[in-house]
Amino acid sequence: MGLVGTIPPEIGNLSFLVSLDLSENSFGGPIPSSIFNMSSLEVLKLRNNSLSSSLPIDMCKHNLHKLKRLHISYNKLFGEIPSSLEQCSQLEYVSLVSNNFSGIVPTPIGNLTLLQELYLGSNNLSGNIPKEIGVLTNLAGLDLSINNFTGHVPREIANLTLLQLLDLSTNKFSGNIPEEIGHLTKLQGLGMGLNKFSGPIPATIYGMTSLEYFDFASNELSGSLSRDIGNMTSLRRIGLEDNNLIGEIPKEIGGLTNFERLSMCCNNISGSVPRELGNLTNMVGIYLGNNALSGMTPKHSPLL
């Protein structure tokens, strides 16, 4: 259970404090405004509590200019993300996951050029992804999942060449998946499921040799899965269920020695299940129901 009650405002009097971590407790009530006046603070961690307040509009305007890590996830915080966050120009890590933040992602966020990780998942954020996010070229992790974002994914996202994780799943994005995503050669995880994306899977995706999983499930994608998927040598998992895909399952998947999970149910896939899938000894799940498959299943597959 840990500590309970409210965070005492007097903690803000610790003017030389560099790191404050009150995570994994049962604190409730607001974040004391005095915390936002701590001019020496570099690390603020308040995650996994029951804190309920908004962030001050001017939270970074006067102090917190040395702040590098802001981790206030898993609380009951609400209101908009203040645009003054840009004035915390030393920020490298921001996590606001699993709160009740609403409104848009402020465009001045593009001024946080040192930012390496930005996690805003599981809130009530809306609007478009600001194209200014493409200026954050040090980003390695970007999570905008489980919100109410709309519109197209900005092509400027291709500028984030250090990105290893991109999660845009469970929103209301529409249009084609931008081919520029295929230029993110360091990407290991790509989540775009549960949106309204349409059109084919971009050919550039099949050149992403570092990608370990991609999830495009529950969209309106069309076309077929390319045989070039055999080039994705790091691939472990594919989520393509509940789309409008056609064509056959590429036998080249059988050459992906680390492959573990194939989910393509609820499409219009035809042909037979490639016998090459029986070579995938690490496979833990194959989901191909509700398609137009025919023929016999692979003789040597332990799962079919």
From TrEMBL:
Question: Cellular component per GO?
Answer: membrane
The reply on keyword Metal-binding is: no
Q: Which GO terms describe its biological process?
A: defense response; response to other organism
Localization of this protein = Cell envelope; Membrane
One Pfam family linked to the record: LRR_8
Its main subcellular localisation, reduced to a broad class, is other
- Record keywords: Leucine-rich repeat, Membrane, Repeat, Transmembrane, Transmembrane helix
**Membrane association type:** Single-pass membrane protein
Q: Which residues form the Disease resistance R13L4/SHOC-2-like LRR domain?
A: 151-239
> Per its UniProt entry, which superkingdom is the organism in?
Eukaryota
Give the protein's recorded name. Disease resistance R13L4/SHOC-2-like LRR domain-containing protein
